[in-house]
Amino acid sequence: MRHSKLLLTTSLFVFSSAAFGQHLVSFGVKGGIGLTDAFSDTTNTNSTANSAVRFFSDSKDYVVGPTVELKLPLGFSVEADALYRPLSLATQSGLSASTLTTIGSTRVTTWEFPVLAKFRLPIPLAKPYVDAGPSFRHVGQLGDHLSSAGFAVGGGVEFHLPFVRVSPEIRYTRWAGDSSSSTGGVFASSNLNQAELLVGFSF
After folding, report:
1. Side-chain half-sphere of 171: how many Cα atoms within 13 Å?
2. Residues 6+ apart with CB under 8 A from 12
3. Residue 9: inside a domain, yes or no?
4. Between 54 and which of 34, 37, 43, 180 could a Cys-Cys bridge form, CB atoms 3.0 to 4.6 Å apart?
């Protein structure tokens, strides 16, 4: 029994060393900018109270976070990201839709966790690739009604440089519908169609 445990431990160590030695697992960082607004431009009017409130995105959002990838045979791999993305939310209010004035702008904290299956074409130097998979999102209190799950697809090109791989990519995410309740008291509608330009650096 003792020899079996020793053999198993040795085998796992050798396999892990070989895997890392052949660069089957890579780590890096990914960052970029949103190409679409995070929130839909919506104006809610209340004729009884004689008031109107508008929610919209007043700037594009940046995206940044770590990434890890496990390479598989035949050009396939699995990538997992943890992307910090603060969503820009602006609010206007007035007596009507034609008399709105800005009363505030804030950032809604979100973390996105896409888990993507990736396929690279076997082309030297510059390798085109496509990826797809589920994406999960953790949202701060001000946006706790926003969708927490969606599906992402993307494509890009991977360039091999000395000591680093650079991967520019266009990624599209379709989020599920928002919840009808919010503990933060903000009911801005999210843009369920999200596109972003990302650049990854892996080692």
Report:
1. 31
2. none
3. no
4. 43
d(CA 79, CA 117) in angstroms, rounded, equals 6
- Is residue 18 included in any domain, yes or no? no
Does 171 reside within a domain? Answer: yes
Return the DSSP state at 194: E
* Domain coverage including residue 178: 35-202
Task: List Cα–Cα distances, 125 to 65, 154, 164, in angstroms.
Answer: 25, 20, 12
Alpha-carbon distance values, 59 to 77, 137, 144 (Å)? 34, 20, 20
Count of domains for the chain:
1
Rounded CA-CA distance 190/176 in Å is 10
The model carries a pTM of 0.80
Q: Which of 37-46, 99-108, 112-121 has the highest mean pLDDT?
A: 112-121
Q: What angle do CA 119, 199, 112 make, to 5 degrees?
A: 80
Terminal-residue alpha carbon distance, the chain = 39
Q: Report the distance separating Cα 139 and Cα 158, nearest Å.
A: 31
- The answer for residues whose C-beta is within 8 angstroms of residue 36's C-beta and 6 or more apart is 191, 193, 194, 195, 196
CATH number at residue 90: 2.40.160
What average pLDDT does this structure show over 50-60?
83
